[in-house]
Structure formats: C-alpha cells, structure tokens
Specification:
Helices cover 8% and strands 50% of the residues. By secondary structure, the chain is mostly beta strands. It has a 14-stranded antiparallel sheet. A hairpin with a 2-residue loop joins strand 9 and strand 10.
Amino acid sequence: MQLAKWHILVLFLILTSFQGRDRSLTDFSELNPCSTENNVFVEGEKMVYKIYYNWNFIWIAAGEVTFQVKEKDHQYHLSAMGRTFDSYDWIFKVRDYYDSYVAKADLRPLRTIRKVHEGNYRLYDDVTYIHDQSMAVSRKGKSEDDLEEAQVSLESCTHDLLSSVYMMRNIDFQSLPEGTVLPLNVYLDREIYDIDVVYEGIDPEKKVKGLGKCNTMLFKPRLIVGNIFKDNEGMSVWVSNDENRIPLLIESPISVGSVKVVLKEYKGLKYEADFDLK
C-alpha cells in the first residue's frame, strides 16, 4: 500500500491548478511566466493539507504537507514539507523537504533543494538555475556527501514545482473561458515535464470537508501516466474563487487506489479568505 513520491504528487496536484496561459490567445503580454509580479502571497503565509489514501474502499489519513513563505533580501524562500503520520509510518514512512529560492523580481527559481526520505529510498538534489544560459546545474545523490553533477538544458521560462505554484497564483482566471487549455513546463529530477490543464469554470457551491460549501474554480490536469497516475484525466482540483487562489480540495486516482487532499489549516494570507474552516 505504498504511496511512492507522494509529496511530489501533492505538489503536482496543486501547481497544475494555477496555470493561466490560453493557447487560443494571441496576446501573452499579461501571462508571461518569465516575468511575474507578486500581488498574492506574503511572508508568513502557511497552508497545511491533509492527505487521505483510499485502498479497498477504506479512507486512511496518511499524512500532511505544509507550505510556507519566508522573505529575505531579493528572494522568497518557498518550502514544502511532507510527512506521513506516525500511525502510517509502519506502512510507508515519508519525511520529505522541498525548498525553492525564487527571485522577487520575476518569481523564477534561483535554487531548489530536495531532501527525500521515503521508505528505504533516499535522495538529495541541489539545483542552481542559470536562466540567461538556459541551463540548470544539478548536484544529486543519496546524501549531501555523495553527489554527482550534471547540466540540464532548460526550456523557455522553466519553473520548478514550488515556483510554479506561487507564480501561477498571481494569474487572474476569471477572464478565461471554460474549456481553456493551460500549458506548463516544470523541472524535476533532471527532466522537463509538460503538463496541460483544462479550466472547467466556476463551481460556486462545492462541498469541502471542514469548509462546507465553497465558491471555487474547477481544473482538470492532464498528467503523465506512469508509476503514480493510472490515467491522465482523472484528477480534479478545486481552487478558492477569491484573491488568494488557494487549492481547497484535490481528488485523483493513482496506480493503486486513490488520493484526496484537503486544506486543513491556513494563516498569514494577504487577503481575507472567502472560506472558513469549521
């Protein structure tokens, strides 16, 4: 009943709800992922998501992922920490850390550090982005003392997982028509992944556990079928239809069972939330 790379799964789920470029548009001037001004999040913002895993019709509270924002000089320090609950550790223990340092000026990543502990699997990956050369330098291995260096070519305006999440929160979706296809490319594990998202429009009374009925926007990402996802269109992401644009509920089938991710806790938002935890 292992849920491999599950905090990366949650990041994939969340980031794909934020993309805002419409391939049918001819004017991309307001949707430039190379230069995005932050008007949405502030230092001290914190969001905690509870992860439920379904196996044989039984929903198990497996763990949680915490997102936080810190600020220093010309950078934002974005972090995500994923962990299984103690009661789940005997099945598959996870203690993962993802840190992204992004430029305040345009929200592009400057450095990404991943520390992964999932069962017997270990990974440390320290990536430096050299955007003016369209290149990333990755120092990767099982630990900080056992690293191999490699250079990876970047596509135009490539982001990492966390920088994508926070950059896309600064895009206004309400002007986009239903059915808009939203493209994204993201760096992970020395690969560039292309992800499409379909914007399904407003879902004004979506019932969310702990929040009641919420005014939301619905997105359906088309993801990469493989070790985690068993199809590319089964995922649904409900995002708050307010100025904060926070994912409230995520549901997805995976290769074994299914996953549900629910907002459990939040604080330090820049704007008053159009929802409230019960």
